[in-house]
């Protein structure tokens, strides 16, 4: 069991700290429309070509007047060198202005920079602080990142229950990475008294159907361990989980019945 747990912890460190946190998620300030998130009002400017023409001249006056989206865009510009000389420290200062006004994508970006030590001294505690603020505003990516921090005990005490809480919140919004990680936790029994293959099946099957190769690999290992009744229950749970804002309710209902 210790070897499995060590392997799992190593996987979490690589996949969550890598895929989820090291990438600053700059796509939140891309030229493509960004999906709105609960509690995160993103101005319609996001649907435009953010860098057309003289982007600094375009965004700086707005940012100086306190426009949170303009501050966020400037943060991105300086962090990646888009239309201005690359300067992560200046980028961080603009992200901070947006974050201080409660703009969740800015809070997420600021937390990521503290996590990476980009433009500022690396500080996992501050990274977790900013991820939490964005997570509490309902931002799925931040909820996912905060879960990773709790999973690994990075910047916060290791707490699997908190990790599961935030993963469920992100997965409930349709965030596939969180749903996959949650499925892995149920399949391995991480942070639980024992594995729950029915719950894992219910979480992973929608991902398998969408072509998620990682979910497919876990499912292949899991199926030989399940009997037909468990598979049927898993299929029923998967059906209830499909779509946004159904996962947490469906999982809670299943767990209530399973605990009887």
Give an account of the 3D structure.
The chain has about 260 residues and is an all-alpha fold. The protein has 2 domains: about 10-20 and about 50-160, Serine Threonine Protein Phosphatase 5, Tetratricopeptide repeat, CATH 1.25.40; about 175-260, no CATH class. About 65% of the residues lie in helices and about 0% in strands. The radius of gyration is 20 Å and the shape is elongated.
How much strand?
under 5%
The helical percent reads 55-70%
CATH superfamily label of the largest domain = Tetratricopeptide repeat domain
Number of helices: 13
- Classification by helices and strands: mainly alpha
- Secondary-structure element pattern, one letter each: HHHHHHHHHHHHH
CATH topology of the largest domain: Serine Threonine Protein Phosphatase 5, Tetratricopeptide repeat
How much is the radius of gyration in Å? 20 Å
Number of domains: 2
Largest sheet geometry: none
CATH hierarchy, class of the largest domain: Mainly Alpha
In oligomeric terms, what are we looking at? single chain
Provide keyphrases for this structure.
Serine Threonine Protein Phosphatase 5, Tetratricopeptide repeat; 13 helices; disordered N terminus
């Amino acid at each position: 069991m210790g070897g499995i747990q060590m392997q799992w912890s190593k996987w979490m460190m690589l996949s969550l700290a890598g895929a989820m946190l090291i990438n600053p998620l700059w796509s939140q300030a891309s030229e493509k429309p960004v999906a709105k998130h609960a509690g995160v009002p993103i101005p319609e400017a996001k649907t435009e070509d953010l860098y057309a023409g003289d982007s600094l001249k375009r965004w700086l006056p707005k940012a100086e007047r306190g426009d949170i989206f303009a501050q966020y865009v400037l943060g991105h510009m300086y962090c990646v060198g888009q239309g201005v000389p690359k300067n992560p420290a200046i980028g961080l200062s603009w992200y901070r202005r947006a974050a201080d006004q409660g703009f969740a994508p800015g809070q997420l970006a600021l937390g990521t920079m503290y996590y990476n030590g980009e433009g500022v001294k690396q500080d996992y505690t501050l990274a977790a602080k900013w991820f939490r603020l964005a997570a509490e505003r309902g931002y799925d990516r931040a909820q996912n990142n905060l879960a990773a921090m709790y999973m690994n005990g990075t910047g916060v005490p290791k707490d699997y229950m908190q990790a599961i809480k935030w993963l469920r919140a992100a997965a409930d919004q349709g965030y596939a990475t969180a749903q996959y990680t949650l499925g892995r936790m149920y399949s391995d029994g991480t942070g639980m008294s024992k594995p729950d293959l029915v719950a894992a099946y219910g979480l992973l099957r929608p991902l398998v159907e969408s072509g998620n190769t990682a979910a497919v690999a876990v499912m292949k290992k899991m199926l030989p361990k399940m009997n037909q009744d468990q598979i049927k229950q898993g299929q029923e749970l998967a059906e209830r989980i499909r779509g946004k804002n159904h996962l947490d309710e469906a999982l809670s209902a299943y767990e209530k019945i399973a605990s009887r």
